[in-house]
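Run Bacillithiol system redox-active protein YtxJ through structure prediction, thanks.
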Amino acid sequence: MSFFDKIFGGKQEESLSKSFWITIESEQDLEMAIKKSFEGKIAIFKHSTSCFISKTVLRNFEKEIEEAEEQGAVLYFLDLLAYRSISNKIAEDFAIRHESPQLIVIENGKAINDASHQDITLSQITS
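Sure, done. The structure for Bacillithiol system redox-active protein YtxJ is below.
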């Protein structure tokens, strides 16, 4: 691992190994997540793997989740660089301006909360 990878994170994302994330890699995955929102809240974290700010926010959010007794939602992860068309579909379907990083909380098929950058906290889900 290079010096810069140690500071900024390498191409391999540690977050994908976190057991609480369900990755969205297709429109079918997105549809399944939306269906799951009728059983309880879901949250989609849209992450830019090339952005230092996004990586920092993701790490802070993951730490907050790991320290919480309950996360309050099923958590989905979207690499928006690899799956930009899905990210665009989310923005269009839920009428939410695209940002990165971004957390969108969905319940009963509707976005009930969204936050970006340093506003992303577990309280977005639990409130």
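DSSP finds five helices and five strands in the chain.
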